[in-house]
Amino acid sequence: MSKAFTRESDEAPNSDPGVRPAPVLPAGAPNYLTPTGAARLREELARLAETERPRLATSAGDDAPALRARDQRIAHLRRSLATAVVVPPPPTGEDRVRFGATVRVRDQAGHETAY
């Protein structure tokens, strides 16, 4: 049967919804990160490697799917940080939008949203 004819509810539930699939960059593409983004990845890596993985290894054993998922995320974070090009945010007050910039948009009703 084609995948198109199945319901999402028929699929096996994700054993660990906190583990995201690894995004793939094309070969040779720079891995740009803001300083804040790089810090968040380092914090996540430290938390996973130093706290969550040892806890899972103790409680679930080395073959647990959750432990394998954690190991995959840890490996992905290490690769991402190893290839990261940290780009500082542009100076404030510029009229151009660049990587790492914060942009505020006001709609017709006057509500402001920051991106």
Model description:
The protein is α+β, with helices and mostly antiparallel strands. 38% of the residues lie in helices and 10% in strands. The protein contains two helices and four strands; from the N terminus they run βααβββ. It has helices at 35-60, 65-82; strands spanning 31-33, 84-86, 104-106, 112-114. Strands 1-2 form a two-stranded parallel ribbon. A two-stranded antiparallel ribbon has the order 3-4. A hairpin with a 5-residue loop joins β3 and β4 (112-114). α1 (35-60) runs antiparallel to α2. It is elongated. 3% of the residues are buried. The model is unreliable at 11-16 (pLDDT under 50).
Topology, please?
Elements: E1 31-33, H1 35-60, H2 65-82, E2 84-86, E3 104-106, E4 112-114
Helix pairs in contact: 1-2
Structural class: alpha+beta
| Number of discrete helical segments | 2
Strand order of the largest sheet: 1-2
Q: What's the number of extended β-strand segments?
A: 4
Shape: elongated
Please give the share of residues in helix. Answer: 25-40%
Query: Separation of termini?
Result: 42 Å
Describe the biggest sheet?
A: 2 strands, parallel
- Round the Cα radius of gyration to an integer and report it: 20 Å
- Beta-strand content bin: 5-15%
Report the uncertain regions.
11-16
What pattern of helices and strands is seen along the backbone? EHHEEE
How would you state the average pLDDT, rounded?
80
